[in-house]
């Protein structure tokens, strides 16, 4: 285990009691306290500036996730692709993201996180810009470019939360994570808005992909100049031990036995399945609902009406901000009286969201207003969980394994979640349409019925978070023990750091 440090970050240095003496190793396996090495510290204002920059980049990250969904009808017509192929477009994006996330998690736990994030921003920015110049006969190249954007996004989604975890601690971390994760729904909503608004202004959906690189160039400059790369575990006063690193397989075995991590990952997977499907298909579903109600003519040529993308984008932004703030604040207050507050809040919000999504889908053919209301409520309840599930992961996993933990959660969540759900919904819709008359009403009903599986997925997610509540306290206690080793190498590290051995001052 590593020695305790002075507490860095925005709260300022604070020397831990008893850190300057030595004592024998206890029977519980704890390492003897060692002389405190030089601490890592950061002024309060620098930590908050770094958090602001990371939030801005997170906004751009999620705008890239859903900017295509905001102009999906035009993309389909430009490249001549069906619903199932359009769903595959998002599947390629998230598939490449999930395949590269473990690589970035491994690199982030062992090398410079700033360098890795800079590479990711350059990759997704360049791929997005180049995709706007692809001619219609090369649709496969457009699919590949979306995959490259997904690889770049994986670096940020994996590593940015771990930097925040090393800058803030306790309630400050909860609040900062809440602000950080607000930009998931806000960025997603602005992706729809930017795509549809730029298309409406220019008459060409390609310009939406050409504006983003300008914003991303600013983000890269801010990252390089204003964001530090703190030692892993700095906020918890745990010393980063570089010479005695556990292997990636040891980290994975440790996470596989961490039941809070396992069940929360499955819960996040259910959330990702629903948000991926709804985020990709909801604008088209609402457009076709308006056609069925006689409020909108069908779209047979470009440019298609973008009103529903704008409405859905605005709903996503508003409900996302309210939901993330409500979830984080409820978690912060409730866990003062119940240590299992976080998974219980996630479970209850997901079960309520399932009811809202089901009612939104069932009522859409009858009353469009009720569909919008229940869809907005469902999005709000889903958004309550973004900051809370991140706080769960960071509290139950050892600091040195957080990059790998984020990567594995992203990978599993995307493999079984939003990498497959857009394609699955589109595939079911296409299969149902093939067996029915080719009318607009039947097209709408096929998409509606394919959406119903989302409500059942949310119920499963709620059950997973109930399981997290059973294991949370035990896993948090283990992760908060002073030290940075996984269970496999803690004893070896204690021996290595005992006073009088050659290695005891190696990392001082």
TrEMBL record:
Record's bilayer topology term: Multi-pass membrane protein
InterPro entries, per database record: MFS, MFS_dom, MFS_spinster-like, MFS_trans_sf
Keyword list, A-Z: Membrane, Transmembrane, Transmembrane helix, Transport
UniProt cross-references to PROSITE patterns, sorted A to Z: MFS
Subcellular location(s) per record: Membrane
All copies of domain Major facilitator superfamily (MFS) profile, residue ranges: 50-473
CDD domains, alphabetized: MFS_spinster_like
Residue ranges, compositional bias (Gly residues): 18-27
Domain of life (superkingdom): Eukaryota
Bias (Polar residues) ranges: 477-487
Family stated for the protein in its record: Belongs to the major facilitator superfamily. Spinster (TC 2.A.1.49) family.
Protein name: Major facilitator superfamily (MFS) profile domain-containing protein
């Amino acid at each position: 285990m590593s020695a305790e440090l002075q507490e860095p970050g925005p709260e300022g240095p604070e020397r831990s009691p008893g850190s300057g003496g030595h004592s024998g190793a206890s029977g519980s396996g704890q390492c003897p306290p060692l002389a405190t090495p030089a601490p890592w510290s950061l002024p309060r204002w620098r930590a908050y500036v770094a958090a602001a920059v990371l939030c801005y980049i997170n906004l751009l990250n999620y705008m890239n996730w859903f900017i295509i969904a905001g102009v999906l009808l035009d993309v389909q017509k430009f490249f001549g692709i069906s619903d199932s192929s359009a769903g595959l477009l998002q599947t390629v994006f998230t598939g490449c993201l999930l395949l590269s996330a473990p690589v970035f998690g491994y690199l982030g736990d062992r090398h410079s996180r700033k360098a890795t994030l800079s590479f990711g921003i350059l990759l997704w920015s360049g791929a997005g810009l180049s995709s706007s110049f692809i001619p219609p006969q090369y649709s496969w190249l457009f699919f590949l470019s979306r995959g490259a954007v997904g690889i770049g996004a994986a670096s940020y989604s994996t590593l940015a939360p771990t930097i925040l975890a090393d800058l803030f601690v306790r309630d400050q971390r909860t609040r900062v994570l809440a602000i950080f994760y607000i930009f998931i729904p806000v960025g997603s909503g602005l992706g729809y808005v930017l795509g549809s608004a730029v298309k409406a202004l220019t008459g060409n959906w390609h310009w939406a992909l050409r504006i983003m690189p300008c914003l991303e160039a600013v983000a890269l400059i801010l990252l390089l100049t204003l964001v530090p790369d703190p030692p892993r575990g700095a906020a918890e006063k745990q010393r980063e031990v570089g010479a005695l690193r556990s292997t990636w397989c040891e980290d994975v075995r440790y996470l596989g036995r961490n039941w809070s991590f396992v069940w929360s990952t499955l819960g996040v997977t259910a959330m990702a399945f629903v948000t991926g499907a709804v985020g990709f298909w909801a604008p088209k579903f609402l457009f076709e609902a308006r056609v069925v109600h006689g409020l909108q003519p069908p779209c047979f040529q470009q440019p298609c009406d973008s009103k529903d993308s704008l409405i859905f984008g605005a709903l996503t932004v508003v409900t996302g901000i309210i939901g993330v703030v409500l979830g984080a604040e409820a978690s912060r207050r409730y866990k003062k009286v119940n240590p299992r507050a976080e998974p219980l809040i996630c479970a209850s919000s997901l079960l309520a969201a399932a009811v809202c999504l089901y009612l939104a889908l069932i009522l859409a053919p009858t009353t469009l207003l009720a569909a919008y209301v229940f869809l907005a409520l469902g999005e709000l309840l889903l958004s309550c969980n973004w900051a809370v599930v991140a706080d769960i992961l960071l509290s139950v996993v050892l600091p040195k394994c957080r990059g790998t933990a984020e990567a594995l959660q992203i990978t599993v969540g995307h493999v079984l979640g939003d990498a497959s759900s857009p394609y699955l919904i589109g595939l079911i819709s296409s299969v149902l349409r093939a067996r029915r008359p080719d009318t607009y009403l039947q097209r709408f009903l096929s998409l509606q019925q394919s959406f119903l599986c989302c409500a059942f997925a949310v119920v499963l997610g709620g059950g997973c978070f109930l399981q997290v509540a059973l294991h949370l306290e035990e896993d948090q206690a283990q992760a908060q023990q002073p030290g940075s080793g996984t269970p496999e190498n803690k004893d070896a590290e204690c021996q290595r750091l005992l006073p009088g051995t050659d290695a005891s001052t190696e990392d001082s």
